Amino acid sequence: MIDTVMIRLQNLSLLIISTLLISCGDQPSSDNEKAEGVLANKIIDQKTTTAVGDIDRGSKLYLQCRACHSLKENEPHTIGPNLFNLVGSKAGSRDGYVYSEALLNSEIVWTIENLNLWLEKPYVIAPGNKMVFSGMRKQEDRDDLIAFLYDQTSEK
Ligand code: HEC
Question: CB within 10 Å: which end of the chain, N or C, has fewer?
């Protein structure tokens, strides 16, 4: 069964992306590549984002995360932070959890797109972070897991 999860990210500001976009207009290609790398870290999507995935399948993939994370409101942090209200939140913003400097300073907002990058290669989007996870290679797996995460961590 495929479930479609509609996610509204209207409250996010364009602070960072607008500054970067303005400055990457007519520069030489090497600079553009660099700018895109930076942007990939900091995409802030104001539009409605759609996460499409199989939530049931995602729940099985979540077994890879469960040893270190909890999902529901008021559940304690464990090795990693509790992930309640994850989508749309700023990285490193959960009270009472001691994050790495890398994540605290990353300015990542957890859009669907950024979660996808994080789950594929956590060490690329936030180098030096302390999540010990080598990455999930298949796009389909990441889609299903993100759909599950959104479903489970959103206020209902
Ligand atoms: C071995 C433990 C471990 C596993 C397994 C793990 N994580 Fe993490 N996770 C962490 C730690 C530790 C952090 C905090 C990283 C930091 O501060 O640099 C983190 C951070 C995160 C964050 C950022 C949260 C925030 O508040 O900004 C997300 C999202 C996340 N993990 C999702 C997942 C998902 C989804 C999986 C399963 C694929 C997973 N993690 C597997 C330990 C783990």
Answer: C
